[in-house]
Design brief:
Length: about 220
């Protein structure tokens, strides 16, 4: 089964965002779909959404999507110890056999995702997206986590992360983005400090990118 196209990924994201919006829940894309919307060349492979709420957990939010749109459905995790279900969405527009797309729903502070003020969300192609610098920092965090994983499949993801980080860094530079800019005053200090530590680790592995990290406000 071939993976979903970028168009299909964004259509699924749009459906999920609409459902949450209709329930008065603020959300935004992060992960590979958000990177793609900012201009990263890699086609996203799933939908990652963070929902900013204190009233529902991720499992309840997944159930909302299933209740409101029959294309969304849940399957048990393959991990017998897991307490969560995996959310998928059928792709109706495709002629491929049983096409589907994985949809991840998270709630802050899961994975140390920050709570983004509504006025700071970016709207790209009518979709709410994590701001560029925080998105870059989350991608850097993913690289660090994948690099330290004991699973071979997770270890392999670090190399895809590096490609995304390289492109995001250049996009941030081209847009004059900087971790010190006033409109990022809401970003938690701990996230900034952790990011700086990861930047030093990243530059040890990829010293040719050091100057680009300096250009977005980090020490390298």
């Amino acid at each position: 089964m071939s993976p979903p196209t970028s168009t299909e990924i964004l259509e699924i994201a749009d459906k999920a965002v609409d459902i949450f919006r209709n329930r008065r829940l603020k959300c935004c894309l992060f992960g590979s779909a958000a990177c793609y919307l900012f201009g990263v060349s890699r086609t996203p492979n799933d939908v990652d959404l963070v929902v900013f709420t204190n009233d529902y957990d991720a499992e309840e939010l997944k159930e909302m999507l299933v209740e409101d749109d029959a294309d969304f459905y849940l399957v048990p995790s393959r991990n017998p110890r897991a307490s969560y279900s995996v959310l998928w969405c059928r792709i109706q527009s495709s002629r491929r056999r049983r096409p589907k797309c994985k949809v991840d729903i998270l709630v802050p502070p899961t994975l140390d995702i920050p709570h983004v003020p509504g006025r700071r969300l970016k709207i790209i192609s009518d979709l709410p997206v994590m701001p560029l610098i925080p998105l870059l920092l989350l991608k850097l965090q993913g690289w660090s986590d994948h690099r330290e994983s004991h699973r071979d499949d997770m270890q392999m993801k670090q190399y895809v992360d590096v490609e995304d980080i390289s492109e995001l860094l250049q996009i941030a530079i081209d847009r004059n983005q900087d971790i010190r800019q006033d409109n990022l005053g809401w970003l938690p200090e701990q996230m900034r400090e952790d990011a700086q530590d990861r930047v030093w680790d990243f530059v040890q592995e990829y010293p040719h990118m050091a100057d680009n990290w300096v250009l977005v406000g980090f020490s390298a």
